[in-house]
Hints:
Blueprint: H1 8-11, H2 50-67, H3 69-87, H4 92-123, H5 129-168
Amino acid sequence: MNAEKPSLSSTFPTPLIPLHQGTTVSKSHHPDSMGKKYDRELSWKIASNLFVSFKYAWTGISYAFRTQRNFRIHTIIGTLAISLGLFLHLTRVEIVIIGLTIGAVMTMELLNTAIESVVDLTVGQSYHDLARIAKDCAAAAVLISAIVALFVASILLFPPLMVWIQFAF
Length: 169
């Protein structure tokens, strides 16, 4: 006997969201989620314990890593920056500063992904100026944090790197 889980959509109907006049909503399916079923039926509930909270957070990180090219790029560049800092024997404080700026960039990238997902969920495949503004501003936050991280890395990494290059060659 094959018993299926009851669907939450039949128990808890989707609330009607007032939309700006002229806005159309259609169900959009992200290409990465086609054919995949995520077991998130009860994710609307408060996490039962700390482990479950961390599991949801890790799910978000792994989703971003799998689906967001820029998140993977930031991860690789951040790993290289920390590795280079360790190789060049930067102080602990300098490594921490680089790590914090990397964390800020990756946090902004996660927030950007979340905002884009919520906006896409809300407007579907229709166009709306406010949706564009929300997405553009979220992307700008990532850009600004990445520029600041590049500035910090150049200030902290380039001088010892130049010294190392002079002694190596």
